[in-house]
Amino acid sequence: MVRRIYVEKKPPYAVAAKGLKDDIISFLGVTGVRDVRILIRYDVENISDEVFETACRTVFSEPPVDVIYYEEFPLLREGEEGPVQTFSVEALPGQFDQRADSAAQCIELLTQEKRPTVRYAKIILLYGEVSAEDLERIKHYVINPVESREASF
Question: Does the global pTM surpass 0.85?
Fold first, then answer.
């Protein structure tokens, strides 16, 4: 069974999202972007429900600064308005994924059992007026084709 969670930094701690927004506006010149959110998606196999719940609070997130969403996440937070453009990024097949490997190692240490399978992807949400051309420029900026690709949802 594959379990999926999404982890997002709470707004005061969302430094990477704020940095990406600043880059999109200043470096790429896409001024229609009002806000950016970044969520980390983990797909985990071969662990029990109990271990999964423990890993959610100790391996995949830091409860004081992160919000965890199980299986699905809201496109709009309270007070946010659309439109919303989304895309996700994952490592290329065969490319070493440091974050997924580290999470799997931590769970293995936690359980002292066989290492689970962990997959990782980064979800980018863009709020505001973003044209199809601008979205492609942003994707080209975020996705390094040597090591990553756009992932399916």
Answer: yes
